[in-house]
Amino acid sequence: MRNKIVGMLKDSSGPVSGEQMSRLLNISRVAVWKHINHLKKSGFEIESTPKGYRLVSAPDIPFPWMFAGRSAKIHYFPEVDSTMDQAMVLARAGCPPFTVVIADRQIKGRGRLQRKWQSQAGGLYFTIVLRPALIPTVCPVINLAAALDLVETLAQCCQVRAQVKWPNDVLVDGRKIAGILSQMEAESDHVAFINIGIGLNLNNQPNDTDIPAVSVAQLTGGHADRVRILNNFLDRFENRMNAFSQPDIIEGWKQRSVTLGRRVRVVTIRESLEGLAIDLDEDGGLILEQADGSRRTVFYGDCFHGN
Ligand code: BTN
After folding, report:
1. What's residue 307's pLDDT?
2. Among residues 83, 234, 255, which one has the least CA distance to residue 149?
3. Which residue of 89, 125, 164 sits with most ligand 1 atoms within 8 Å of its CB, as the best mutation to test the pocket?
4. Which of 17, 29, 107, 219 is the most buried (most CB within 10 A)?
5. What's residue 201's pLDDT?
6. What Å distances lie between residue 219 and 15, 137, 204, 214, 216, CA to CA?
7. Strand ranges (DSSP E) for the chain?
8. Is 101's C-beta closer than 6 angstroms to any atom of ligand 1?
9. Which of 72, 68, 78 has the alpha carbon at shortest distance from 100?
10. In this structure, are residues 2 and 38 in contact, taking their beta carbons and an 8 Å threshold?
């Protein structure tokens, strides 16, 4: 109900009367008044005028009730060590798929390959718990799917043209705007859960990590609406996972790739490989053509772009 009230206030150019809200929402005037008071306590600035209520400002806080249809599965914290840890506890306790842990700030945000992920206020930091009926080897493809949907969300909500870098970064003109970290628990051929953690630079001033970083606010000069962006991404990603098509994900990723066609160096814990990134295989492995013409497929590692 609060979501609908905020929606009505946001959509209206002028004040909205309590009577109008009570009629359209089919609740009493007193109920409207109680919701308005609750919103004010949550940080919404709402002016009461003789013609009705007017929204002056809304806090940039992802309250669970702002996620229509999924509010019971949203766990919001102003601050946590890492959303990965919270999601792990929930997943092991049997939470439903598409449970999401969101934090405004992380004290111990983690990146891939033991790196830290700076998580100052203004960014979007969240982890989604998935329970796909898929075999464990499909995990890299799910990361590619998340990267692909981040690109589409950034285009639709922020008019930012991003691309995907293998294995699972999202870049704008060579600068990192989002990173993805996944954790899986599996028993032989059965995935218990896969947690997908995403850090998206929106209104923060990100520090450079493995490569230079950038945020939406730095690119557009405007304020990015975290709730709208997260809603858009979750809808896309949930639809994509429900209609899971590995070939479609691979094809979509290739079309938005900034890695294919480049000379790259891929560093894994065992070796360092150099070559021309010529293709992605059906499981999300990067196919490299080495100097001697031989081909190698790599499934994980740090990828550095040459030219
Ligand atoms: C990377 O590019 O190295 C991956 C970064 C992933 C960061 C996100 S922020 C939300 C979630 N919680 C974490 O501690 N890490 C991931």
Report:
1. 65
2. 234
3. 125
4. 219
5. 97
6. 33, 36, 11, 7, 5
7. 45-49, 52-57, 74-80, 99-106, 124-130, 163-165, 169-172, 175-187, 190-200, 263-267, 272-280, 286-289, 295-298, 302-305
8. no
9. 72
10. yes
With a pLDDT cut of 90, the percent of the chain lying above it is 76
Question: What does pTM read for this prediction?
Answer: 0.92
Rounded distance between C-alpha atoms, residue 53 and residue 45, angstroms: 10
User: Average pLDDT for consecutive 10-residue bins of the chain (307 residues)?
Assistant: 87 87 90 92 90 89 92 96 98 97 97 91 97 87 97 98 96 96 88 96 90 96 95 97 96 97 93 96 96 94 86
Separation of alpha carbons 217 and 280, rounded Å: 32
CA distance 225 to 242: 26
Structure tokens at 54: 């007017």
Whether 120 lines ligand 1, by a CB cut-off of 6 Å, is no
Residue type for 258, please? V
Whether 154 contacts 177, CB under 8 Å: yes
Hey, which of 82, 99, 181, 183 would you mutate to test ligand 1's pocket, going by the most ligand atoms within 8 Å of its Cβ? Answer: 181
Q: How far is the CA of 99 from the centre of ligand 1 (A)?
A: 17
